[in-house]
Amino acid sequence: MTTTATTAISAPTVSGAPHSDNVGVRLRWAVADSLTITKRNILSYTRIPEALFFSTVQPIMFVLLFRYVFGGSINVTGTSYVNYLMPGIFVQTVAFGSVQTSVGLAEDLQKGLIERFRALPMARSAVLAGRTTADLCRNVLTVVIVTVVGFLVGFRPTTGVLPYVAGILLILLFAYALSWGFAVIGLSAPNSEVAQVIAFPLLFPLTFASSAFVPVANMPSWLQGFATYQPVSVTITACRALMLGGETATWVIQSLLWSIGLLVVLVPLAVHRYRTRI
Amino acid sequence: MQYSIEADTLKKTFTGKHEVRALDGVSFNVAEGTVFGLLGPNGSGKTTAVRILTTILQPDSGRARVLGHDVAKHASLVRSLIGLAGQYAAVDENLTGRENLQMVGRLNHLPRSTVAGRAKELLEQFDLADAADRILKTYSGGMRRRLDLAAALVARPSVLFLDEPTTGLDPQSRNDLWEVIESLVGGGTTVLLTTQYLEEADRLAHSLAVLDHGHVIAEGTPEELKADLGATVLEVGLDTIENARRAAELFRPLGSHTPQVSGTVVEVTVDNGPESAMAGLRFLDQAGIIPAAFTLREPSLDDVFLALTGRRTENESDQDGDPALSGGRGRRRGSPAMETVGMGELS
């Protein structure tokens, strides 16, 4: 029954799935498996009303809340508050959205789906790759919605289309890196409820003790260092610079370094958790 | 003889807050085309054995082979040859039945052109065609189990692992599932089945092993086990504990096993149900004792355990767990399916 590399795929005879030890075939299968899981997650996600609400209605509410309720009391220099706010909303929204990664994985574990996946001849990497890719797709939808709402309430980027798109890509990369962090949480939590509860004490300081909604200069001095250089703020500042002008390169590089650094640490950690979790 | 599944001195200990020795040297062989039952209460190691044989877990020591392939060394190959359906009905409840089966088909790397057809075929075979495009949240427990089983069969595996396939199902759904499993076996599939229900093992398995705390404590055909155990349990309820003790003394000659008293109930395992029942009634009548209840029933896992180990099953660990059904210590019956049956229903 052992298949040699020359005959790539054993014929699917009466019983069993095709099997191959050929590296090329296995690689192709790994990509196909990731896409299958991605599709499954997106499909599954469009049928969970809470999740849809989380990534569509909630960001709109945040835009309206800060634009019309709090915005009048917050002074920013150099630009209008709505222009200041929108890059912050983008990053805050995708950061909150990454909670779905941990909740989804914890649920898959809880319901025995991962156990089924482990007994299938699919690629080991596909569950995590498919989950984070699906979350990336969802984030694309979210930034499109927030862009539209932003323009409707008066957001006017000043630097043109290309820098705007670059800013969006920077946010998506950062969100992708965060997803892997939340994958680690999801794979470590005993159930999906705990996965959700663990996520918020992490997210709140990162999104609110940041430059997302108010200038860091108005915060107490002990908080300013953290609020300026933590990854969410760095990405927001880079994004503001790209969309509204100002010092760009240093912040963009810092944001890229954070995202790449997080990926370098978190991907192996998540993979390790996935392999060792029973 | 050709063995489809071979387990050789498997050991597995889970470390953590409490160290659990889930398997402590378990060996068994399953002949090609037969059904093998692993019988045991929660925490006896059944699920751990299945997880090792299906490549999900690595044993600490020992070897396991499926169709001659070492499960640890050739995990990927083994995965392409087996199917697994579990007690948790591991299907995505936000997808439809069809979508679930197609997903599993693609993850099995079936040719693109055959995935949809295979899903349709299975949905029809498992009587789910009408519900094929409904989201699983609307399925009943029995339908989910059928879909779960269908998902395990997408790639037409020749070896199938069923981990407590009917735990938590109502008697009708259980019976339906048994028929499906029987027809699969008729088609030549080798099945390893874990169960807490002696009745299930008796109906489906050609041979079985009884697991207790990670040890095989008995092995053989269901007939052999039942011959050791006695075929029927006579269960008599009395009005007082005193009368129960007297009845237990009276019943001593009925079988080779000592009658067991718990509270006002006396149980004795006998070889010939109706004959023993008549004798038992005569003894009671002669002693002037009128029973409050008088029942013949098939032996449960609990009775097997009592006969083999001298103690009742304890469901101490959720390792294999179905908390809803596991019951507590000193539980009287192993199985909700094995409802007490009246004398008249037994031959």
Put the structure in a nutshell.
The complex is a heterodimer of chains A (278) and B (347). By secondary structure, chain A is mainly α.
Describe the structure.
The complex is a heterodimer of chains A (278) and B (347). With 278 residues, chain A is an all-alpha fold. The model of chain A is unreliable at 1-13 (pLDDT under 50). Chain A contains 11 helices and no strands. Chain A has helices at residues 23-45, 49-70, 81-97, 99-110, 113-118, 126-152, 161-188, 192-208, 221-229, 231-244, 249-276. The longest helix of chain A has 28 residues, at 161-188. Chain B is an alpha/beta fold and 347 residues long. Chain B folds into 2 domains: 3-226, Rossmann fold; 230-345, Alpha-Beta Plaits, CATH 3.30.70. Chain B contains 12 helices and 14 strands. Chain B has helices spanning 46-53, 75-79, 97-107, 112-125, 141-152, 171-186, 198-204, 222-229, 241-251, 273-287, 301-309, 323-326; strands at 3-14, 20-31, 35-39, 61-66, 69-70, 82-85, 159-163, 190-195, 207-212, 215-220, 232-237, 260-262, 265-270, 293-297. In chain B, strand 7 (159-163), helix 6 and strand 8 form a beta-alpha-beta unit. Residues 316-347 of chain B have low confidence and may be disordered. At the A-B interface, helix 1 and helix 5 of A face helix 2 and helix 3 of B.
Topology:
The complex is a heterodimer of chains A (278) and B (347).
Chain A: H1 23-45, H2 49-70, H3 81-97, H4 99-110, H5 113-118, H6 126-152, H7 161-188, H8 192-208, H9 221-229, H10 231-244, H11 249-276
Helix pairs in contact in A: 1-6, 2-3, 2-6, 3-6, 3-7, 3-8, 3-10, 4-6, 4-7, 4-8, 6-7, 7-8, 7-10, 7-11, 10-11
Chain B: E1 3-14, E2 20-31, E3 35-39, H1 46-53, E4 61-66, E5 69-70, H2 75-79, E6 82-85, H3 97-107, H4 112-125, H5 141-152, E7 159-163, H6 171-186, E8 190-195, H7 198-204, E9 207-212, E10 215-220, H8 222-229, E11 232-237, H9 241-251, E12 260-262, E13 265-270, H10 273-287, E14 293-297, H11 301-309, H12 323-326
Parallel strand pairs in B: 3-8, 3-9, 6-7, 7-8
Antiparallel strand pairs in B: 1-2, 1-4, 4-5, 9-10, 11-13, 11-14, 12-13
Helix pairs in contact in B: 3-4, 3-5
